[in-house]
Q: What sequence folds into this?
């Protein structure tokens, strides 16, 4: 089995989650829209799950909309909110380092009469409040800034952005996928109006997600049909998946504090040792305002892709950035937004740890990586 340090791209489903889902495939398989007792059972469990997920982010159960995942939640929040509120204005702000789904939704909205402004970030990937404020116009209706970045792990000043949006009467959406299960989420305290969650990012099954939509923040549905989820997301509810996501949230709420401490230990060992033992290695992202499980580096003179393949040969799974954009040859838009040159962005490597890592996984990386970097540099015409 590989040493798996790519938890940002995909997580295994926790066996306790699989066990909780099991009865909902065969024994309790009813459709919540049916009026018989099997349907009633499904309605009851759906209700419980809604309460659990509301609790997870300090929301109310009727503010939870179940979706097929983070991409759909991002689509519903941005497109749904923009379309429903276009009479108020047609300007939207996002940051330059949003996930590709947000960037592509923004392009779609631009083709449909909206103007999107991208807020630049500093060299560590932080969005400054002044930079947001300077770009707000009287037509701005929505600001979407990811809670934390899925590549470099930089965490944004979410409470301050929430306060700013509230003061200006602008809706605030945050994609919290990279942060969920690693940082406590509180939509009420942080004045978040719309928030995206994904089940797999808390060790639940893929294909399930949530959009939290605060009461009063109305949206136009993007999936039309039987009117489920208060008319905002039609289609028969994925009960086993939703049960899995709720169980995953319940587990992580209990275990997060202990788990995060463990991840921080792994992350800090990786960062300290790699920067010390490998010459001309650099940390990407913020030195302190970063996710507890993220260590993202660049190494002068070599390509992240060659590093990744050499580590793969040694049974270590890492990443060069977002799996969602790994099929393009373009350097990561996030790394370019930090001000890195193309060759620097191409020399990057990301480790993200998770629930099933142990100390010896970190030992394996610290043993293998210096040798691999040295060997590749000897072969590299770029390394002087
Ligand atoms: N947002 C972020 C920050 C992500 O990292 C991802 C990918 N895990 C997504 C959205 C899209 O998630 P999905 O592919 O599950 O819809």
A:
């Amino acid at each position: 089995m590989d040493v798996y340090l790519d938890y940002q791209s995909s997580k295994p489903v926790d066996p306790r989650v699989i066990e909780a889902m099991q009865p909902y495939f065969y024994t309790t398989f009813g459709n919540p829209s049916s009026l018989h007792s099997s349907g009633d059972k499904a309605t009851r469990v759906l209700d419980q799950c809604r309460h659990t997920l509301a609790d997870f982010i300090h929301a109310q159960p009727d503010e939870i909309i179940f979706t097929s995942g983070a991409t759909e939640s991002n689509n519903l929040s941005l497109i749904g909110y923009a379309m429903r509120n276009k009479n108020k204005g047609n300007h939207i702000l996002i940051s330059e380092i949003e996930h590709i789904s947000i960037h592509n939704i923004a392009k779609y909205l631009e083709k449909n009469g909206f103007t999107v402004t991208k807020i630049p970030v500093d060299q560590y990937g932080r969005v400054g409040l002044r930079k947001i404020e300077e770009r707000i116009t009287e037509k701005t209706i929505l600001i979407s800034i990811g809670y934390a970045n899925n590549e470099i792990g930089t965490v944004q000043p979410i409470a301050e952005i929430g306060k700013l949006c509230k003061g200006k009467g602008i809706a605030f959406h945050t994609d919290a996928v990279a942060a969920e299960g690693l940082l406590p989420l509180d939509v009420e305290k942080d004045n978040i109006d719309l928030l995206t969650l994904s089940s797999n990012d808390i060790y639940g099954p893929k294909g399930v997600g949530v959009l939290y939509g605060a009461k009063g923040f109305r949206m136009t549905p993007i999936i039309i049909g039987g009117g489920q989820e208060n008319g905002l997301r039609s289609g028969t509810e994925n009960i086993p998946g939703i049960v899995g996501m709720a169980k995953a949230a319940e587990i992580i709420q209990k275990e997060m504090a202990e788990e995060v401490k463990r991840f921080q230990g792994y992350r800090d060992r990786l960062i300290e040792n790699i920067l010390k033992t490998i010459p001309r290695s650099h940390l990407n992202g913020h030195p302190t305002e970063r996710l507890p499980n993220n260590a993202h580096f660049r190494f002068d003179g070599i390509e992240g892709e060659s590093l990744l393949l050499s580590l793969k040969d040694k049974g270590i799974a890492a990443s060069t950035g977002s799996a969602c954009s790994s099929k393009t040859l373009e350097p990561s838009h996030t790394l370019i937004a930090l001000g890195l040159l193309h060759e620097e962005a191409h020399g990057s490597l990301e480790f993200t740890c998770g629930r099933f890592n142990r100390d010896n996984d970190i030992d394996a990386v610290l043993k293998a990586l210096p040798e691999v970097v040295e060997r590749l540099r000897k072969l590299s015409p770029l390394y002087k």
